[in-house]
Amino acid sequence: MIGALNHVGVATPSIADSIKLYRDVLGATKIGQPFDLPAQGVKVCFVDTPTAQIELIEPYDATSPIVGFLAKNPKGGQHHVCFEVADIHAAIT
Question: Would you say 6 and 12 are in contact if contact means Cβ atoms under 8 Å apart?
Fold first, then answer.
């Protein structure tokens, strides 16, 4: 059964620029430190909201799986939505 919204993934060409938007324009106060996930081909930063998180994702390099998404959406945009489930294996079978 589908659970609570965990996070919304937002692809961005620049996490640094997106942090400024969420902090300075949208008023976010709980923004994590960006970190690299080279195995997944992305750089990541989480922005906490009262009920979920926003996951900012930037390409790690030119081979990143989100390079194509950003080619189609140069300013970035919603990439994925993640819901909590009790058992991920039961949820996908």
Answer: no
Report the predicted TM-score, pTM, of the whole model to 2 decimal places. Answer: 0.89
Distance between CA 8 and CA 39 in Å, rounded?
20
Residue 25 phi/psi, 5-degree rounding, is: -100, -45
Q: Where are the beta strands (DSSP E) in 19-61?
A: 35-37, 42-48, 53-59
Total of domains in the chain? 1
Tell me: the pLDDT tens digits for 3-46?
899 999 999 999 999 999 999 999 999 999 999 999 999 999 99
Q: Which has more confidence, 85 or 34?
A: 34
What's the first-to-final CA gap in the chain, in angstroms? Answer: 12
Structural domain including 51 reads 2-92
- Whether 53 and 4 have beta carbons less than 8 Å apart is answered as no
Cα atoms found within 13 Å of the Cα of residue 59, Cβ hemisphere only: 15
